[in-house]
Amino acid sequence: MKVLIVGSGGREHALAWKIRQSPRVTRLYCAPGNAGTALEAENVEIADTDIAGLVKFAQTEKIDLVVVGPEDTLCLGLVDALAEVGIRAFGPDKAGARLEGDKAFAKELMQSRSIPTADTRLFSSYRDAKTYVASRDSSVVVKATGLAKGKGAIVCEDPADALLALERIMVKREFGRAGDRVLVEEKLVGPEVSVLAFVDGANIYMMENSQDHKPIGEGDTGLNTGGMGAYSPTLIPDEKVLRQIESEVLVPIVDALRSQGITYKGILYAGLMMTAGGPKVLEFNCRFGDPETQPILMRLKSDIVDVMEAVIDNRLDEITLVWDPRPAMCVVVASGGYPGDYSSGKPITGLEEADQVPETVVFHAGTRRVGNQVVTAGGRVLGVTAIADTLVQARERCHEAIGHIHFENAYWRKDIGFKAIDVATT
Ligand code: AMP
Ligand code: GLY
């Protein structure tokens, strides 16, 4: 079968690497892809927001399955547009993707089913938001309600911080129209976990869980990024809490969507905080997480194409996922300056040597090939991912591989997975 992957990040390289392993796939394309997806698939120069262009390509090439990586593409309705011309796609339709694309809508759904989440107020007026924030004496999180590449949630220590965050979102409009409305919510504390599940409209199949590291700085300091590293599995939540997350979060949100006439299919990603009062939802995403996908797919032994087709055909209950019990870790190597300004076009060396490290894959994110040279082309450049008997060994493999890689001003967090490693070794 012919498969088209849409997107150009580390997640899409990991998807291409995994889908390529399916014996059923005869041709694999990636639009627009990066220098890493080009090693697994044929890159096609169509932007992931060019819905008409993607549909036309899928029709011309008689694509059997389109796998959509990014949320923007889902929110623009690629899955709906493909359905109109009879092409199968993996991912929710536009109405389902609103769960991620509109945080206010997601909150309303959560509130309608008493799904545990942070208390929130929604504002479309800057003045009202300012008055509210100034009257609060506890820490808050200010969030743009629209899509902001994972950077639209600003965790504030005090009201002065929160006023600055409001100004950035609603006055300076750093996230454009995504900041037309904001949520101001109570700040929760606790470790974070990403729970990803396949959903076929009715059945929910949870994957092995993982933990992302959102802030740029070591010790979880500084600005939020798209994610600087991840590992799987995590120590928490245990089986009992996982079942609780399934019954108190995943099942009711799929039901709430259905009650709105939305049959949700694809990946349902719950970002959760394990608070003293139990797990609470920080956000829902409508696609695979980046960089969580990299360690998760390295651990998945089953043919992912079979699973994706079962999702589309409403027969997820017939599927069994087989996992490698060993842990995997992904360390993101970024351009210095990210998530603020950074420069691109820097030559990257040592990629082949890094790939020689056993059970290690260098997934590309922001990279581009110029002639014979791979150069940087984004904030998050590479996701070096390894699997091993222990998390400590997986981390050593990542770091051995990173030791071979060079580009100007490269930055990575040295403490990915440390919380789990500290607990496991003490
Ligand atoms: P979001 O885009 O909503 O997932 O937020 C991005 C990151 O901001 C999360 O991964 C958390 O680290 C942090 N965050 C979001 N909401 C809250 C909250 N209510 N309390 C504490 N931290 C939060
Ligand atoms: N890793 C966070 C995200 O994909 O949104």
Question: How does this model look, in words?
Answer:
- It is a single chain.
- This protein has 426 residues and is α+β, with helices and mostly antiparallel strands.
- The chain folds into 4 domains: 2-93, 3-Layer(aba) Sandwich (Rossmann fold), CATH 3.40.50; 125-180, 2-Layer Sandwich (Dna Ligase, domain 1), CATH 3.30.1490; 192-318, ATP-grasp fold, B domain (D-amino Acid Aminotransferase, Chain A, domain 1); 328-424, Glycinamide Ribonucleotide Synthetase, Chain A, domain 4.
- It is built from 14 helices and 23 strands.
- It is globular, with a radius of gyration of 21 Å.
- The structure holds adenosine monophosphate and glycine (GLY).
- Glycine binds at residues 150, 212, 227, 285, 289-290, 292.
How many domain regions? 4
Query: Which blocks of ≥5 consecutive residues have pLDDT under 50?
Result: none
Radius of gyration: 21 Å
Here the CATH topology of the largest domain equals D-amino Acid Aminotransferase, Chain A, domain 1
Task: Write down the overall geometry.
Answer: globular
User: Tell me, what is the CATH class of the largest domain?
Assistant: Alpha Beta
CATH architecture of the largest domain: 2-Layer Sandwich
Structural class: alpha+beta
Amount of beta strand: 25-35%
- Number of helical stretches of at least 4 residues: 14
Please summarize the sheet with the most strands: 6 strands, antiparallel
The CATH H-level homologous superfamily of the largest domain: ATP-grasp fold, B domain
- First-last Cα distance: 49 Å
Mean pLDDT: 96
Bound molecules: adenosine monophosphate, glycine
Quick one: how many beta strands?
Answer: 23
- Approximately how much helix is present in the residues? 25-40%
